[in-house]
Design a protein that fits this description.
Alpha-Beta Plaits, globular, alpha+beta, 4-stranded antiparallel sheet
Amino acid sequence: MSEITLNVKGMKCGGCAKRVEDALKGLPGVTSAKVDLKKGEVQVAYDSASTTPEQMKKKVTEAGYKVE
């Protein structure tokens, strides 16, 4: 299992956090995604054989947020 922290811009509320978490959890191999709104981060645990950080960034962008 691997972990990554993504810096996500534009999340303002619990609904935003849920949208980002749900988008990431929809990827194969993602076992958890936890948003910290105060830090503007999401911690993701995933199987690196099933998904990549680039795929995660794309999913977050498709959900309407910017990944830095």
